[in-house]
Design brief:
This protein is mainly α. The protein has one domain: UraD-like (Orthogonal Bundle). Helices cover 66% and strands 0% of the residues. It has nine helices and no strands. Helix 5 crosses helix 9.
């Protein structure tokens, strides 16, 4: 999708495409409403600004649409982003599975990390470290990670 197509497309079509970047209904509505965008930088800034304006429940809605780290996904983007897990040992997969459970029990949402370019060991280390956070701190970190993911996906959308 080109920036011109994004600006000129129907609201319904753009909303559906935007959900692939971030599956918060409010985020999608607000970003779509901000069209037209002068350039990619303006679009990425809007994605960032809108994300920062959302509520906790909007963030949690977006988190809920992600597969857990190490979980197979039908989404090509998620699979590519988590490709660091592809060659992880069985022990690492088992550890990630249990750590994901521990994290979700503690915080009430899945572990969100911008996994692009990270190895399985790096993701495991981050998950262990972040389990030590209090819920308020962790929500802010998870939201910042989701914002990174969203902006990468907006760029992917424009590259398709």
């Amino acid at each position: 999708m080109t920036l011109h197509e994004l600006n000129a497309g129907s609201e319904a079509a753009l909303s559906e495409s935007s959900k692939r970047c971030c599956d918060s209904q409010v985020w999608v509505q607000r970003v779509v409403a901000l069209r037209p965008f002068a350039d990619e930088s303006s679009l990425l800034q809007a994605a960032d600004d809108v994300w920062g304006s959302l509520t906790r429940s909007d963030w949690l809605e977006a988190f809920a649409q992600h597969p857990k780290i190490g979980q197979r996904s039908a989404s090509k983007w998620s699979s590519t982003e988590q490709s660091g897990m592809d060659h992880a040992s069985m022990d690492t997969h088992a550890a990630m599975h249990q750590l994901n459970i521990d994290y979700e029990r503690k915080f009430g949402w899945i572990f969100i990390v911008c996994a692009t370019g990270k190895t399985a060991d790096e993701m495991r280390t981050l998950l262990i470290e972040r389990l030590n956070n209090d819920p308020t701190t962790e929500l802010a970190i998870a939201a910042a990670e989701q914002c990174k993911i969203t902006k990468l996906r907006v760029q992917k959308l424009l590259d398709e």
